[in-house]
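User: Could you go from structure to sequence for me? I need the amino acid at each position, not a summary. Structure tokens:
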């Protein structure tokens, strides 16, 4: 059962009012000694202020091209941003603040400013377009926005349909109306709001199978729990490590790996606005990075580009997550660098990684074992645990868990206290978990989750498209790619030019990474008698 809620500091009770009722939440496990949290807890105090208070203020915290901030500098910036939010933008604890930027130091400062002020950070991927931003803003009833000036246009496009946002400031903006100018007028010290350990501090969005994004609510104690389970038991980094990687801070894989985890141990992190495989490996050399987080496809691309030679770098630990790690990619990376990848499955609902293995103990093809603090099993359709060797649904519980913001889909993710991730897995006799597939319609391509219906919806807006069905098909490089089956309207010809036209069209309508890399023209689509599209039949056609 969920422990009793502590005294909330939220004057705006939006998040607490929209938590799933206790009986619909998962069980929580707090058995590890490190997970005994006080009733009042602000994770910014632990992750940021504590280092300065304990004399580590001069240590390097955040680096980026041309930037090197100590813990004291980040604290100074975050404090000023907290004051701007409260004094100038009228934030009260519990308000939702949208953050929009590529990974850079000011985004990190804004994240801490929001948390210090008792706000709820709502991260958004830089690539999202107005349509997707609107869905998030409306669902989370976002009141404030802090946006990188270079990404403001798309948010402004969404603004007419986002009346809940009453305050917006841009950063990385030298002008008199920018966040930096506002910060200069505020004091450099701030008393963090004394939030309850179970006050919500982030709402992380994940695209559902229907294309309607789901907001997952995480508490201050969840942020600390994520820092206290997988990192010390599996990653085992040190304060002298330099973290680097590609996932956006709006994705909890990136938030944990590139901000929370390094800061929880007083290490430093490198934030990169562009982190394609060549950018990433270049930056590893420039910053002498030692711990890397990225997706399997990125490891593969770096290793392949190296043409089988030896890749000598400062790296000592490399973490792969977001999608299944093919055994071939693990082998390629080991051949190139001598480093055994650390694979881990995490989920936005669980905040971070819950099944993994350390680099001294990897089994190619298996994700690993339950991380200390978590328990996992494989269950059948009746919800009962299956014996080793049988494929079923992955079920997990631990200190973190799924709490969707006012969403019926809570019932599907949490059953009998277990979080069901939507993955088919099998557990072997030694307790190692082996990934099989997704159990739903989510396409995972190069680490991105893409919902079939959303791509279909975009394609259907094109004048040449009569009907369409979208599935994921196996791809050596990206795990899966988006494939669209299209029935054309009369008068349109199935040409290569039209394929390109449809792809460009989707890129304009929704985030470009969701576009169908494969398009096949067909005369009709498989449907049920009631007219429902049968994606499973498209899938079996595609593999034949
Ligand atoms: C899949 C994996 C096999 C799996 C995430 C680390 O990916 C993250 O969160 P999402 O909500 O997606 C969750 C789903 O992605 N997946 C992730 N990692 C693996 N499948 N092997 C893996 N190693 O289907 C899972 O249910 O986008 C990953 C940390 C934080 C995260 N949010």
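Assistant: Here is the amino acid at each position, in order:
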């Amino acid at each position: 059962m969920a422990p009793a809620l502590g005294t909330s500091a939220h004057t705006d009770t939006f998040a607490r009012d929209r938590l799933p009722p206790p009986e619909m939440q998962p069980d929580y496990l707090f058995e590890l000694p490190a997970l005994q949290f006080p009733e009042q807890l602000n994770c910014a105090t632990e992750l940021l202020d504590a280092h300065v208070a304990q004399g580590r203020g001069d240590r390097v915290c955040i680096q980026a091209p041309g930037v090197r901030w100590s813990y004291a500098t980040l604290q100074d910036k975050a404090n000023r941003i907290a004051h701007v939010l409260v004094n100038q933008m009228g934030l009260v604890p519990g308000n939702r603040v949208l953050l929009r930027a590529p990974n850079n130091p000011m985004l990190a400062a804004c994240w801490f400013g929001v948390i210090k002020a008792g706000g709820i950070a709502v991260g958004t991927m830089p690539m999202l377009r107005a349509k997707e931003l609107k869905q998030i803003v409306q669902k989370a009833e976002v009141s404030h926005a802090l946006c990188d000036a270079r990404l403001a246009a798309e948010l402004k496009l969404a603004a007419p349909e986002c009346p809940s946002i009453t305050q917006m400031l841009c950063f990385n903006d030298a002008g008199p109306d920018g966040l930096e100018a506002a910060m200069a007028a505020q004091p450099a010290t701030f008393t963090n709001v004394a939030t309850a350990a179970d006050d919500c501090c982030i709402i992380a969005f994940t695209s559902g199978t229907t294309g309607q994004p789901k907001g997952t609510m995480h508490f201050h104690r969840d942020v600390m729990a994520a820092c206290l389970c997988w990192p010390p038991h599996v990653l085992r980094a040190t304060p002298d490590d330099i973290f680097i990687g590609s996932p956006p801070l709006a994705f909890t894989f990136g938030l944990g790996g590139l901000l929370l985890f390094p800061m929880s141990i007083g290490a430093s992190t490198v934030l990169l606005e562009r982190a394609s495989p060549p950018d990433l490996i270049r930056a590893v050399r420039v910053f002498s990075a030692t711990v890397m987080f990225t997706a399997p496809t990125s490891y593969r691309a770096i290793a392949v580009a190296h043409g089988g030679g030896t890749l000598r770098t400062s790296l000592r630990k490399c973490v792969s997550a977001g999608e299944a790690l093919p055994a071939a990619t693990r082998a390629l990376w080991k051949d190139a660098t001598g480093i055994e990848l650390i694979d881990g499955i995490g989920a936005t609902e669980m905040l971070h990684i819950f099944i993994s293995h350390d680099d001294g103990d990897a089994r190619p093809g298996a994700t690993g074992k339950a991380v200390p603090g978590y328990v996992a099993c494989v269950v059948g359709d009746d919800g009962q645990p299956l014996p080793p060797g049988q494929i079923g649904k992955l079920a997990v519980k631990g200190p973190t868990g799924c709490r969707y913001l006012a969403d019926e889909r809570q019932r599907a993710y949490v059953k009998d206290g277990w979080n069901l991730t939507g993955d088919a897995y099998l557990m072997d006799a030694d307790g190692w978990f082996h990934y099989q597939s997704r159990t739903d319609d989510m396409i995972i391509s190069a680490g991105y989750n893409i919902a079939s219906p959303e791509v279909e919806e975009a394609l259907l807006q094109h004048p040449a498209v009569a009907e369409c069905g979208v599935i994921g098909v196996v791809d050596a490089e990206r795990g899966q790619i988006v494939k669209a089956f299209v029935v054309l309207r009369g008068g349109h010809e199935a040409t290569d030019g039209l394929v390109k036209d449809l792809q460009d069209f989707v890129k304009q309508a929704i985030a470009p990474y969701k576009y169908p890399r494969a398009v096949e023209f067909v005369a009709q689509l498989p449907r049920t008698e009631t007219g429902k599209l049968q994606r499973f039949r498209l899938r079996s056609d595609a593999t034949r």
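One structural detail worth keeping in mind: Residues 71-88 form the longest helix (18 residues).
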